[in-house]
Amino acid sequence: MNITITRYRISFCADNDMHLPSYAGSALRGMFGHALKSMACPTANGRSCRCQGDCLYRTLFDPPQSHTHDRKQDTPPPFIIEAHSLPRHIRAGQTAYFYMTLIGKVAHSEQMMIELAWRRALSVGFDQKVKTKATAKFIGMSKFDSPFDSPIKPMPSTALILDLLTPTRIQHHGKLLNSQDLTASLFCQALMRRYVQLSAVYGDKPDDDELKSVYQDIENVTGECYLSYRAWSRFSHRQHRVIPQDGLVGRIELHGVSERLYHYLHLGQWLHIGKGTVFGLGQYQLR
Predict the structure, then answer these.
(1) Which residue, 49, 129, 145, 265, is the most exposed by fewest CB within 10 angstroms?
(2) Cβ(29)–Cβ(81) below 8 Å
(3) How far apart are CA 31 and CA 114, in angstroms?
(4) Across the beta sheet with 79-82, what order do the strands follow?
């Protein structure tokens, strides 16, 4: 698993009363993108980044599509914003924090620029339903944990339980899976697709024999899903419309997990799973 992954805690102090949306990951991502573009993109005054080469905004925030098996596919950005820890209301003078996970060497090498972007983003703030814009003072960005620094828990002798913390959107053959369609094996397959894609772009190409063995292990996995549907949407300033981001929350019990697969499930707690991971969707925790 030769890919660099680190979760950072970003702390701030509110300048005024802040009224955050039910899940602030999308708003924070938008703030970060605007700030990064204004600092790092040569075409920052344009409506969209037209750079084809060395543009840090393009590299970090909007990476170009990749070509796989003679078809184009979206390239996931090398970061994840986790905002589920933020309260809905933050009073003026109150400190709060959220998390940002960086993936790959390039994102880690640009940590100073990322910090400056967050400093600017928080000072500019974001619009609220009230007239006052929500702004804050950046306090710091400090390393919180990493899947390779965090001791992996012993694998339980009975069922392995995963708690889905944020709405999880997993597709299979182009269809978004609901609570009746999602199975333990489909969950594990989606996890491996996520890992393989990130590794191919931001790490070393996964070993084919290793992947073949993991997928064989997945065939032996069974389990039960205790999931419910959670409605959530975000407003896209680029598309000028509200985009549904509904997903599944709850818990999944896995049986027959191999030691090898268990290590990938541990890693997935930092990588998330499914669609919308850049906003922090698809976050789960093992217990």
Answers:
(1) 129
(2) yes
(3) 12
(4) 79-82, 95-103, 5-14, 136-145
Separation CA 231–CA 246 (nearest Å): 4
pLDDT digits (tens, 9 = 90+) for 75-129: 999 999 999 889 999 999 999 999 999 999 999 999 999 999 999 999 999 877 6
Distance CA 234, CA 279 (A): 10
Strands (E), 201-283: 222-230, 233-236, 241-244, 247-255
Report the pLDDT value the prediction gives residue 71, as an integer from 0 to 100. Answer: 61
The neighbouring-strand residues paired with 161 are 253
Model confidence band, residue 132 (pLDDT cutoffs 50, 70, 90): confident
Secondary structure (3-state) at 241 = strand
Q: How do beta strands 247-255 and 241-244 pair?
A: unpaired
Tokens of 40: 């790092």
- Take residue 2 and report the two structure tokens written for it: 């030769």
Q: Chain-centre distance of CA 284, in angstroms?
A: 11
Instruction: Give the SS3 label for residue 9.
Output: strand
